[in-house]
From TrEMBL:
It comes from Streptomyces flaveus. It comes from the Bacteria. This is Polymerase nucleotidyl transferase domain-containing protein. The lineage of its organism: Bacteria, Bacillati, Actinomycetota, Actinomycetes, Kitasatosporales.
Length: 245
């Protein structure tokens, strides 16, 4: 299309529907999250082609405008997209626009939304250690009078905490933009959403040490129930600095 007539989302979908090489379309981003679209929201569309299919639609590879961003990928490439990777959450919550595989596209997206048991255990272990590390640094810096460092470490700890909590529930962590949307619809088991979000906001902004310690007590209990006691015990006596006084 010309610069004066950029390719619109609806027009491209019509082209894709008419092309038998296209086995699926998946819309991600704000357009796939009810209530989050604005006048600035574009359409981020995955175009899934049958493996080894020939199609003129490949001319749109890399197409990116304020209205429409296209990712054109083979079915094999779509299966592995975001596995692992930053794109995983976006695909986990993508909306199916076209599925010519009798539910196969939807199943691929559902698989991305659920970490397998081994992956979740491994990721949880790593995020738990990262969370404890940032928490420990924050509390120690606060003790030693390094207020800025303490707040920055506290903010880092919240990032790792969220990764941990979603991994414990075998889910990819949502991007910050979608965190409240995600938790409002799919709360984390055992966690009050409002309490968790309020604590994340307050700790990130202030580095509140008593609140960090209170939150850690809950995380420690959940982590031990999930079988991660060894990660925590590796911190030895340093755990005392993280726990409530």
């Amino acid at each position: 299309m010309t610069a004066q007539q950029p390719l619109a989302y609806d027009a491209f979908v019509e082209l894709a529907l008419a092309d038998s090489a296209v086995v699926g379309l998946a819309l991600k981003g704000s357009q796939a999250h009810e209530g989050l679209t604005t006048k600035h929201s574009d359409h981020d569309l995955y175009v899934i082609l049958a493996d080894d299919a020939a199609t003129d639609l490949t001319r749109f590879t890399g197409h990116r405008t304020p209205e429409l961003d296209l990712v054109i990928v083979s079915l094999a490439g779509f299966r592995t997209a975001g596995m692992p990777g930053f794109e995983r959450y976006a695909l986990a919550r993508a909306r199916v626009v076209l599925d010519r595989l009798d539910g196969g596209i939807a199943q691929i997206l559902a698989d991305k939304a659920r970490l397998d048991a081994d992956e979740a255990f491994r990721d949880s272990r790593e995020w738990l250690d990262a969370y404890a590390n940032s928490l420990y640094r924050s509390v120690k810096n606060d003790r030693d009078g390094h207020s800025l460092a303490a707040r920055l470490d506290a903010a880092d700890s919240i990032r790792f905490l969220l990764e941990l909590l979603f991994a414990l529930d075998r889910r990819p962590r949502p991007y910050n933009k979608y965190l409240e949307w995600e938790l409002a619809r799919y709360p984390l088991p055992g966690w009050d959403t409002d309490m968790l979000l309020d604590a994340a906001a307050h700790i990130s902004g202030t580095g509140d040490v008593p609140l960090q310690r209170h939150l850690f007590a809950r995380v420690e209990a959940a982590a031990r129930r999930a079988g991660h006691g060894a990660v925590l015990d590796s911190w030895g006596e340093d755990l005392d600095l993280m726990r409530p006084r």
